[in-house]
Amino acid sequence: MSVLELFCAVDDFCQTFEPIWHQQCIASGTKQRYRARQLTTSEIMTILILFHQSHYRTFKAFYTEHVCAELRAEFPGLVSYTRFVEFFPSVVVPLCAYLHSCFGRCTGISFVDSTPLAVCHTRRIRQHRVFRGLAARGKNSVGWFYGFKLHLLFNDYGELLNMTLTPGNVDDRKPVPQLIQRLFGKLFGDKGYLSQPLFQQLLSNLGVQLITPRRSNMKPELLTWDDKLRLRKRAIVETIIDQLKNISQIEHTRHRSPLNFFVNVLCGLIAYCHQPKKPSLQLDTQLPVLSA
Questions:
Q1: Whole-structure pTM over 0.70, yes or no?
Q2: CA–CA dist 7, 68 (Å, integer)
Q3: What distance in Å separates the CA atoms of residue 11 and residue 275, rounded to the nearest whole number?
Q4: Which of 98, 156, 203, 210 measures 20 to 30 Å from 46, CA to CA?
């Protein structure tokens, strides 16, 4: 997506969202000061999302070497890097709302998974101060980490359906009922989501069938042939997470503020949603129904 296309999409959203947001702040009695800035909210959001579509590894290098040098005509009101960083907290709410508008539609076939977002090396946990009281020590299949867990929900076209962020020590199964409130059909997950109480809860309350691999000491489950294929293709989620971490750069250990960390994650997810081509299953939906 080009700079112009991205700005038009973000600006159209902001023109609708900002008046409603400001009106709600006034109605709630919250004191707000809306002083005129050289950059509009849509321009700030566009620059932040552009960073996650670029090849730069740090936002400072991207802003000083690319935006200020090559995009000054597109953003005539550019400010210094230090001043721009001060704008981050003001766009957290618009970014949350814009990400929600970028979510895909449920197709009846969904995949759930979580990934750790480490905020520091395990050897520096005792010295870490930025996320004290927020992050937690957790463990996944790779090993121990200190930070958060990003829980993601996708459909079979690779479109993001929902997300939530929890401390690193939260069980993968705990956020699932809240994540799938608007879902229908079948939900595929790994062995970390294997739970009979969770299966019964989702099926009885929401009508969603949870399908996970079985352990070797458990009785086999009867599945249709297409469900068995989709369960094997569940690794598509790992491909998406790899793109989020290595292309959209949602994980790094240089954060100096929890709000900036959250902005980084939101913009990385938005950048992925704007990808023209996403990993998808491309399975034939007319497969014969067979029992395992």
A1: yes
A2: 17
A3: 18
A4: 156
